[in-house]
Amino acid sequence: MAVQYTPTPLDLLRLLGCTERKGEPYLKELESTHNIKLPPLLFDFFSAAWNHPLFRASDVWPTC
């Protein structure tokens, strides 16, 4: 019997140890400064992965 498990991006982040949403204040500032609204899933992903060592060298961060 095959196990079917389809984790969400946020589930994967939790498995990788990204349990705190440290980036939320920075993303809210980014949204208000540039008058944009990030999609909810992207906002949640960036909030959880913010400044995590695994993603520190990746090119996924918004720049102000």
Describe the structure.
- It is built from three helices and no strands.
- The chain is mainly alpha-helical and about 60 residues long.
- Helix 2 crosses helix 3.
- It starts with 8 loop residues before the first helix and ends in a 15-residue tail after the last helix.
- The model has no long low-confidence stretch (mean pLDDT about 85).
Name the shape in a single word. elongated
Q: Averaged pLDDT, please?
A: 83
- Counting helices, strands and paired strands, the structural category is mainly alpha
Q: Please report the distance between the alpha carbons of the first and last residues.
A: 49 Å
Radius of gyration: 14 Å
> What order do the helices and strands follow?
HHH
Low-pLDDT stretches: none
The residue fraction in helices comes out at 40-55%
Strand content: under 5%
Number of helices: 3
Largest sheet: none
Give the beta-strand count: 0
Structure summary:
The chain is mainly alpha-helical and 64 residues long.
Descriptors:
single chain, 64 residues, 3 helices, 44% helix, mainly alpha
Break the fold down into its secondary structure elements and pairings.
Elements (H helix, E strand, L loop, with lengths): L8 H7 L8 H11 L5 H10 L15
Helix pairs in contact: 1-3, 2-3
